[in-house]
Amino acid sequence: MDFWEYLGSRHQQLLTDAWQHASAVFQCMVLATVLGVLIGVVTYRSGWAGDLATTTTSTILTVPSLAMIGLLVPVVGLGVPPTVIALTLYGLLPIVRNSIVGLRGVDPTLVDAARGIGMSGPMRLVRVELPLAWPPILTGIRVSTQMLMGIAAIAAYASGPGLGNEIFRGLASLGSKNALNQVLAGTLGIIILALLFDAAYVLIGRLTIPRGIRV
Protein backbone atom coordinates (compact mmCIF):
# COMPACT_ATOMS: atom_id res chain seq x y z
CA MET A 1 0.00 0.00 0.00
CA ASP A 2 1.53 3.33 -1.04
CA PHE A 3 1.16 6.55 0.95
CA TRP A 4 -1.82 7.92 -0.99
CA GLU A 5 -3.71 4.66 -0.67
CA TYR A 6 -2.99 4.69 3.04
CA LEU A 7 -4.38 8.22 3.34
CA GLY A 8 -7.50 7.19 1.45
CA SER A 9 -8.13 4.19 3.67
CA ARG A 10 -7.41 6.02 6.95
CA HIS A 11 -8.64 9.53 6.19
CA GLN A 12 -11.44 9.48 8.77
CA GLN A 13 -9.13 8.50 11.62
CA LEU A 14 -6.49 10.97 10.46
CA LEU A 15 -9.02 13.81 10.38
CA THR A 16 -10.17 12.88 13.90
CA ASP A 17 -6.59 12.84 15.17
CA ALA A 18 -5.86 16.14 13.43
CA TRP A 19 -8.92 17.76 15.00
CA GLN A 20 -7.95 16.51 18.46
CA HIS A 21 -4.38 17.71 17.95
CA ALA A 22 -5.47 21.18 16.84
CA SER A 23 -8.04 21.41 19.63
CA ALA A 24 -5.51 20.45 22.31
CA VAL A 25 -2.96 22.99 21.07
CA PHE A 26 -5.57 25.74 20.74
CA GLN A 27 -6.97 25.24 24.24
CA CYS A 28 -3.52 25.07 25.79
CA MET A 29 -2.49 28.22 23.90
CA VAL A 30 -5.51 30.07 25.31
CA LEU A 31 -4.46 29.06 28.83
CA ALA A 32 -0.80 29.88 28.19
CA THR A 33 -1.72 33.26 26.71
CA VAL A 34 -3.91 34.25 29.65
CA LEU A 35 -1.30 33.13 32.19
CA GLY A 36 1.65 34.52 30.23
CA VAL A 37 0.16 37.98 29.72
CA LEU A 38 -0.97 38.08 33.35
CA ILE A 39 2.54 37.22 34.53
CA GLY A 40 3.95 39.88 32.20
CA VAL A 41 1.54 42.52 33.51
CA VAL A 42 2.39 41.69 37.12
CA THR A 43 6.19 41.65 36.65
CA TYR A 44 7.15 44.08 33.87
CA ARG A 45 7.54 47.13 36.11
CA SER A 46 10.13 45.40 38.31
CA GLY A 47 13.50 44.40 36.89
CA TRP A 48 14.09 41.50 39.24
CA ALA A 49 10.50 40.22 38.99
CA GLY A 50 10.62 40.26 35.19
CA ASP A 51 13.95 38.43 35.22
CA LEU A 52 12.58 35.88 37.68
CA ALA A 53 9.52 35.24 35.51
CA THR A 54 11.64 34.82 32.39
CA THR A 55 14.17 32.58 34.12
CA THR A 56 11.48 30.37 35.65
CA THR A 57 9.64 29.84 32.38
CA SER A 58 12.98 29.27 30.61
CA THR A 59 13.83 26.57 33.14
CA ILE A 60 10.51 24.82 32.49
CA LEU A 61 11.30 24.75 28.78
CA THR A 62 14.61 22.94 29.40
CA VAL A 63 12.80 19.90 30.86
CA PRO A 64 12.51 17.23 28.12
CA SER A 65 8.88 16.89 27.05
CA LEU A 66 8.89 13.10 27.47
CA ALA A 67 10.24 13.46 31.00
CA MET A 68 7.69 16.18 31.83
CA ILE A 69 4.76 14.05 30.72
CA GLY A 70 6.23 11.00 32.43
CA LEU A 71 6.48 12.90 35.73
CA LEU A 72 2.91 14.17 35.42
CA VAL A 73 1.31 10.78 34.73
CA PRO A 74 1.65 9.44 38.32
CA VAL A 75 0.14 12.70 39.62
CA VAL A 76 -2.76 13.38 37.24
CA GLY A 77 -3.10 10.12 35.31
CA LEU A 78 -3.09 9.36 31.60
CA GLY A 79 -4.82 11.13 28.73
CA VAL A 80 -5.80 14.79 28.56
CA PRO A 81 -4.67 16.17 31.99
CA PRO A 82 -0.89 15.64 31.56
CA THR A 83 -1.16 16.89 27.97
CA VAL A 84 -2.86 20.14 28.97
CA ILE A 85 -0.53 20.84 31.89
CA ALA A 86 2.66 20.11 29.94
CA LEU A 87 1.67 22.09 26.85
CA THR A 88 0.49 25.07 28.88
CA LEU A 89 3.76 25.19 30.82
CA TYR A 90 5.87 24.85 27.68
CA GLY A 91 3.92 27.64 25.97
CA LEU A 92 4.62 30.24 28.66
CA LEU A 93 8.16 31.40 27.91
CA PRO A 94 7.73 33.25 24.58
CA ILE A 95 4.50 34.85 25.77
CA VAL A 96 5.87 35.95 29.16
CA ARG A 97 9.08 37.27 27.65
CA ASN A 98 7.38 39.14 24.81
CA SER A 99 4.71 40.54 27.15
CA ILE A 100 7.40 41.99 29.41
CA VAL A 101 9.43 43.33 26.48
CA GLY A 102 6.33 44.79 24.81
CA LEU A 103 5.01 46.48 27.93
CA ARG A 104 8.41 47.90 28.83
CA GLY A 105 8.75 49.22 25.28
CA VAL A 106 5.64 51.40 25.43
CA ASP A 107 6.54 55.09 25.07
CA PRO A 108 6.37 56.62 28.60
CA THR A 109 5.09 59.90 27.17
CA LEU A 110 1.96 58.14 25.94
CA VAL A 111 1.37 56.68 29.38
CA ASP A 112 1.90 60.11 30.94
CA ALA A 113 -0.55 61.63 28.47
CA ALA A 114 -3.14 59.01 29.40
CA ARG A 115 -2.55 59.77 33.07
CA GLY A 116 -2.91 63.45 32.34
CA ILE A 117 -6.41 63.04 30.89
CA GLY A 118 -7.54 61.21 34.00
CA MET A 119 -7.14 57.53 33.09
CA SER A 120 -6.70 55.21 36.05
CA GLY A 121 -3.88 52.65 36.20
CA PRO A 122 -6.00 49.70 35.03
CA MET A 123 -7.55 51.82 32.27
CA ARG A 124 -4.10 52.91 31.04
CA LEU A 125 -3.03 49.29 30.98
CA VAL A 126 -6.06 48.09 29.04
CA ARG A 127 -6.50 51.01 26.65
CA VAL A 128 -2.92 52.18 26.08
CA GLU A 129 -0.17 49.80 27.18
CA LEU A 130 -1.57 46.41 26.18
CA PRO A 131 -2.73 47.54 22.70
CA LEU A 132 0.73 48.99 22.00
CA ALA A 133 2.41 45.84 23.36
CA TRP A 134 0.12 43.55 21.34
CA PRO A 135 2.44 43.07 18.30
CA PRO A 136 5.29 41.47 20.31
CA ILE A 137 2.77 39.54 22.41
CA LEU A 138 1.22 38.11 19.24
CA THR A 139 4.68 37.16 18.01
CA GLY A 140 5.24 35.26 21.26
CA ILE A 141 1.92 33.47 20.79
CA ARG A 142 2.93 32.44 17.26
CA VAL A 143 6.27 31.08 18.46
CA SER A 144 4.61 29.17 21.31
CA THR A 145 2.05 27.64 18.97
CA GLN A 146 4.72 26.35 16.59
CA MET A 147 6.57 24.76 19.52
CA LEU A 148 3.45 23.17 20.97
CA MET A 149 2.45 21.65 17.64
CA GLY A 150 5.53 19.44 17.78
CA ILE A 151 5.54 18.86 21.53
CA ALA A 152 1.87 17.79 21.47
CA ALA A 153 2.88 14.71 19.48
CA ILE A 154 4.73 13.44 22.56
CA ALA A 155 1.42 13.42 24.45
CA ALA A 156 0.63 10.11 22.73
CA TYR A 157 3.16 8.58 25.13
CA ALA A 158 0.60 9.19 27.90
CA SER A 159 -2.45 8.23 25.82
CA GLY A 160 -3.00 11.87 24.92
CA PRO A 161 -4.99 13.00 21.89
CA GLY A 162 -3.66 13.97 18.49
CA LEU A 163 -1.52 12.95 15.56
CA GLY A 164 1.24 11.73 17.86
CA ASN A 165 -0.71 8.49 18.16
CA GLU A 166 -0.20 7.89 14.43
CA ILE A 167 3.53 8.52 14.76
CA PHE A 168 3.91 6.30 17.83
CA ARG A 169 1.97 3.47 16.19
CA GLY A 170 4.28 3.65 13.20
CA LEU A 171 7.42 3.71 15.34
CA ALA A 172 6.14 0.77 17.38
CA SER A 173 5.63 -1.32 14.23
CA LEU A 174 8.77 -0.47 12.27
CA GLY A 175 9.29 -3.07 9.57
CA SER A 176 5.59 -3.53 8.86
CA LYS A 177 4.21 -2.38 5.52
CA ASN A 178 2.41 0.68 6.87
CA ALA A 179 4.86 1.83 9.55
CA LEU A 180 6.47 4.51 7.36
CA ASN A 181 3.07 5.64 6.10
CA GLN A 182 1.85 6.14 9.67
CA VAL A 183 4.88 8.18 10.72
CA LEU A 184 4.77 10.25 7.52
CA ALA A 185 1.01 10.89 7.81
CA GLY A 186 1.30 12.05 11.41
CA THR A 187 4.32 14.24 10.72
CA LEU A 188 2.85 15.89 7.62
CA GLY A 189 -0.43 16.43 9.45
CA ILE A 190 1.36 18.33 12.22
CA ILE A 191 3.26 20.45 9.70
CA ILE A 192 0.04 21.34 7.87
CA LEU A 193 -1.70 22.28 11.12
CA ALA A 194 1.26 24.45 12.12
CA LEU A 195 1.10 26.30 8.80
CA LEU A 196 -2.67 26.80 9.10
CA PHE A 197 -2.35 28.18 12.64
CA ASP A 198 0.43 30.52 11.56
CA ALA A 199 -1.66 31.79 8.64
CA ALA A 200 -4.50 32.44 11.10
CA TYR A 201 -2.14 34.47 13.30
CA VAL A 202 -1.04 36.54 10.31
CA LEU A 203 -4.70 37.32 9.61
CA ILE A 204 -5.34 38.16 13.27
CA GLY A 205 -2.36 40.50 13.21
CA ARG A 206 -3.67 42.31 10.14
CA LEU A 207 -7.08 42.70 11.76
CA THR A 208 -5.94 43.74 15.24
CA ILE A 209 -2.70 45.68 14.74
CA PRO A 210 -3.10 49.23 13.33
CA ARG A 211 -1.21 49.78 10.12
CA GLY A 212 0.99 52.47 11.63
CA ILE A 213 2.20 50.09 14.35
CA ARG A 214 2.83 47.29 11.82
CA VAL A 215 4.99 49.61 9.77
Largest sheet: none
- Percentage of residues in strands: under 5%
How many individual helices?
10
Shape, per Cα inertia axes: elongated
Which percent bin holds the helix content? over 70%
| Average pLDDT for all residues | 89
Distance between the termini: 51 Å
Kindly provide the radius of gyration, computed on alpha-carbon positions and rounded to a whole number of angstroms.
20 Å
Order of helices and strands: HHHHHHHHHH
Per DSSP E runs of 2 or more residues, the count of β-strands stands at: 0
Poorly predicted regions: none
Summing up helix and strand content along with how strands pair, one would put the structural category as: mainly alpha
What does this structure look like?
The protein is mainly α and 215 residues long. It is built from ten helices and no strands. It is elongated, with a radius of gyration of 20 Å. It starts with a helix and ends with a helix.
Question: Tags for this entry?
Answer:
elongated, 82% helix, mainly alpha
Helix-strand blueprint:
Blueprint: H1 3-43, H2 47-62, H3 65-76, H4 80-90, H5 92-104, H6 108-116, H7 121-151, H8 164-172, H9 179-208, H10 211-214
Helix pairs in contact: 1-2, 1-4, 1-5, 1-7, 1-9, 2-5, 3-4, 5-7, 6-7, 7-9, 8-9
Summarize the structure.
With 215 residues, the protein is an all-alpha fold.
